[in-house]
Design a protein that fits this description.
Strand content: under 5%
Helix content: 55-70%
Number of helices: 5
Largest sheet: none
Number of strands: 0
Order of helices and strands: HHHHH
Structural class: mainly alpha
Number of domains: 1
CATH class: Mainly Alpha
Length: 120
């Protein structure tokens, strides 16, 4: 039962039904493509990392725009640790789109921020 819960926790929530948007750049690539470009010498490696960091920046910007006072998600995170989260998720879910893996990371960062927030 615990193994099942851990496995389900690794899979991001599906996109919101009816929500339509355009994903620019490598975010619409599959996780299989992300994983194919993980070699230290692959020039696309930096492209994927930059896209991920831009996604997180955009999500944080939009989140704070609506008055949320939570800490900026990812502020105290090593960039390599952020990429490693997506690496792990993509390795287990090669058909997932990179944008969905990035969204799962952002949600995970939000869950961690909530768990360390002091009580009111």
């Amino acid at each position: 039962m615990i193994a099942l819960a851990l496995m389900l926790a690794q899979v991001p929530a599906p996109p919101i039904p009816g929500l339509k948007f355009t994903t620019l750049g490598v975010g619409s690539d599959t996780c299989a493509s992300w994983m194919a470009h993980r070699s230290e010498t692959d020039p696309m490696r930096a492209t994927y990392k930059t896209w991920l960091l831009g996604f997180l920046t955009g999500a944080n910007t939009e989140y704070s725009r609506y008055g949320h006072q939570d800490p900026i998600l990812g502020t105290n995170q090593d960039e390599d640790a952020l990429v490693a989260f997506v690496d792990h998720l993509c390795a287990d879910n090669p058909d997932l789109e990179v944008r969905d893996a990035a969204h799962a990371l952002w949600m995970d960062l939000g869950d961690r921020a909530v768990s360390v927030r002091p009580p009111l």
